[in-house]
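During the second year of the project, the team shifted from modelling isolated chains to modelling whole assemblies. The rationale, set out in the original proposal, was that interfaces cannot be judged from single-chain predictions alone. As a representative example for this report, we include one of the complexes processed in the last quarter. Its constituent sequences, exactly as entered into the pipeline, are reproduced here:
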Amino acid sequence: AQSVTQLDSQVPVFEEAPVELRCNYSSSVSVYLFWYVQYPNQGLQLLLKYLSGSTLVKGINGFEAEFNKSQTSFHLRKPSVHISDTAEYFCAVSDFGGSQGNLIFGKGTKLSVKP
Amino acid sequence: NAGVTQTPKFRVLKTGQSMTLLCAQDMNHEYMYWYRQDPGMGLRLIHYSVGEGTTAKGEVPDGYNVSRLKKQNFLLGLESAAPSQTSVYFCASSNFYEQYFGPGTRLTVT
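Output from the structure prediction step:
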């Protein structure tokens, strides 16, 4: 069975500072990895995804994530955050091949960017 | 191209009442999903469908039923609502490698 652990439930940070949101997963098979963002009172929007190839994945809004197979991690980073990045971020994993595209989500990390 | 839409956006039910949530997608996706989101729990899969006329149980299916009579629609039903079903419900559709989410339905059961 797969699982996802987001190590921080809340991350406060000042505007223009760098941020890292941590995600670890467990799976017995090859996986595909995703980060979604949820702005207040909205649905989820895909930030970036890792399916194969380069382990450094770039997404929208200046975010990037690095897939580390040996550490089973997929941490999300941004070098300089803006107030508008305040949102909840979800890491998700899928093995697609055996799960009909089902995603397993972490419990979320609330990023709060302060001026 | 509206993507994924959900109806209604808000609903308040009394315990024991029934209702149906409608999800529609215009991207011709085969896969559709229903999730519930509760504070501190992330999103949990209720039911999903891999094509018209097919449905399957997810992680938390009890108390819910679904139907996929048309490829573009995925209905979620609550036959006898309970306060534990107070939640935000999200529908998603997928081209297999990426899920697209609707705006959500906020349901309160009193």
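Chain B has a mean pLDDT of 94. The interface with chain A takes residues 4, 31, 33, 40-45, 48, 50, 56, 58, 90, 92, 94, 96-104 of chain B (CB under 8 Å).
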